[in-house]
Amino acid sequence: MIKDENRQTTTVNRANVDQNRAILEQINSLKREDERLYNILAIDVWALAKTMDEYQPGFWAAFMKNREKALKRFLSEMIKNKPSDSKRPPFLR
User: How far lies 3's CA from each of 7, 14, 17, 36, 76, in Å?
Assistant: First the structure.
């Protein structure tokens, strides 16, 4: 009886380990695919900006200026709309 319980426990543990391993493999696969998509998008943006810079000199500089302004505006909006959590220390609010 004890041997049967040990066998069942071992079988369940192996199934859990296999399931956990499969889930971790799926997560790693999704991470790789996400990174690949990010790299493809970066190349697309670079190619578009490079092409536009050839047709309209100064396009890249103007693009980067607008991007910086948009980022600053986005960050200020995020800070303004961020809910205050009084449980967090002041340097993390």
Answer: 6, 16, 21, 49, 64
